[in-house]
Amino acid sequence: xxxxxxxxxxxxxxxxxxxxxxxxxxxxxxxxxxxxxxxxxxxxxxxxxxxxxxxxxxxxxxxxxxxxxxxxxxxxxxxxxxxxxxxxxxxxxxxxxxxxxxxxxxxxxxxxxxxxxxxxxxxxxxxxxxxxxxxxxxxxxxxxxxxxxxxxxxxxxxxxxxxxxxxxxxxxxxxxxxxxxxxxxxxxxxxxxxxxxxxxxxxxxxxxxxxxxxxxxxxxxxxxxxxxxxxxxxxxxxxxxxxxxxxxxxxxxxxxxxxxxxxxxxxxxxxxxxxxxxxxxxxxxxxxxxxxxxxxxxxxxxxxxxxxxxxxxxxxxxxxxxxxxxxxxxxxxxxxxxxxxxxxxxxxxxxxxxxxxxxxxxxxxxxxxxxxxxx
Length: 375
Ligand SMILES: [Zn+2]
Ligand SMILES: [Zn+2]
Known about the structure:
alpha/beta; binds zinc ion; Quinone Oxidoreductase, Chain A, domain 1; Rossmann fold; globular; 7-stranded mixed beta sheet; 12 helices
């Protein structure tokens, strides 16, 4: 079938993106779903910093690629062998497929699924195929999703069936921002009821971490960002304290508020000084988690004696250490019961044709979650 999609042909184009237009809206051909694949009509797709990292070249991928990895839609056609989904089901895409069979999937660590990571690295669906093309020129899939398009073919292992009552524009956010942010706090850091937490970097993922920390019973929730607007949003979502971690005295402020440092700090800023701040602000015996994706050449310098003498833990978190089929429905339940106001993360609703404006706004730091809404 012929569909409209936003395609990236070249990375590292100059800003403003409203002039350079890194994404072009094109008519492309989408093949029918193969074995264990389904066709999904995309209803909403969020603009995430990880898409921007492909556009600006911080996270290089094979091109041409249809971007977008945070989306929700309706199943409209089933490929061969699909048993657990039916036409009409509402689904959220997880940006890493979980094969269910590898040693990681079998031990509850779907975020490390090996065939999933391999397919994502190669820009294919889990089965190794690409379904988007123009004539004989096949395009790459973005993290098994490619949600900036009217339709997507995806592996069933990239999809989680959801309650049909939840609006698509909110549902989409559970596929990346909410899963990554909430999961980093509750799965990776294992935040306990009554803990104090520091969140550094207040984009969609960091603000989701605040929602998760609050829902999980954190007491002091300290939110740090260079932007005063984002700190204000954090406050409205439940942060008890906000600060600018680049300002002198910020570390002492955290130490004072918590009387010695936070139990858990999570960093989403993607800048080495932000991670160093998060680590230093963590108390003796506490846990620092990073879920950001800085440039691959970035290097962190730490005092090993702090790890030893203070028994601090430093952990990486991918996909919020989630099992998408277990955690996305649970997080949606928390939203539905009013314990996570995910809707407050949405600052803009766009048409597909406005996508370059959206990425310019994201690059400028003037948006939290922008969602492309399809008819
Ligand atoms: Zn994302
Ligand atoms: Zn696996």
